[in-house]
Amino acid sequence: MKPYTKKIVLENGREFYGYGFGASKETINELVFNTSVVGYQEIMSDRTYTGQMVVMTYPLIGNYGMADEDYETKTPSIGGMIVREYNDTPSNFRYTKTLNEVFEEYNIPGIWGVDTRAITRIIRDEGTQKVILTDAETPTAEALEKLRRYELPRNLVETVSCKKRWMSRVPNHTYDVVAVDCGIKTNIVRQLNREGCNVTVVPFNSTVEEIMAFRPDGILISNGPGNPEDVQPVVELVKELRGKLPIFGVGIGHQIVALAYGAKSRKMKFGHRGCNQPVKNLETGRIDITNQNHGYVIDLDSLAATDLELTHVNVIDGTVEGVECKRDMVFTMQYHPENAAGLPSSNDLFKKFTKKMEEHKNA
User: Are the CB atoms for 327 and 359 separated by under 8 Å?
Assistant: First the structure.
């Protein structure tokens, strides 16, 4: 057996040896896991994973390579990836680069050959924690001291949001949407385009005046990384815009909208990350198996003191998945309705958004 080149050391002192791929650098991140069977390209390019080292529970990663059309952002910011078996010889006719090549290009480290099942159990039992990916020769005591001194970054939305506006237009559009970029996924913009929307993506700290200058028919608050309480500029933005235009919140955007109405958020033990979370629509009774990626959740009890109505709940743990204020034309969803590999019924949420914009235009 060839000698190990890398290892990871967890905050609890456990260490796992393996082989490096991608960028050869030392890094410290928050350790999380994702249960998806496919979609590692979308995961590594989802800015919601900024500052996180992702354990992939599916054992084989890299086997279909990377396709130019499937990125969720042009500049991936994931902290790193931990996999059981890495395949560097893709068989997909669409692939243009390997995962290793893309990781090298964007300076993202990875490690393979470790026991991902054991690591996932640790996260489930003890919760998310800090992890360092380092050379195999690094003394454990030195690695633990680095972990002890390191503070996980905050205000992650500020680091991933666009610095200036950009637009995605369609011929003969029906609606104009301003999307507030908290780490927006490309598929959200694509879905809005498919519904006849011209989309203007603006930085998270844009003012009400700057947004209203585009004369939008609706506002979308996008997904993104970190703690929603760190994104006060967007919370204040929602407070000022609610009731004036339809607002649709997705991911951290869902949490931000709830905070704007006075709800509270809390950090989860290990979050929801993967394509196997059942969510119940309380109005229809329908249950969708959804794609999710979040480590914070809105406190259910805190909704009682707000003007928000609970619309969706997680079947497994009862956490808040969706809320709505019909009076203000505001609704939200915690899971990712734009996910290309998800249920077609998720597109109903974008149709609901366009319906609200149509009703507001004709009011």
Answer: no
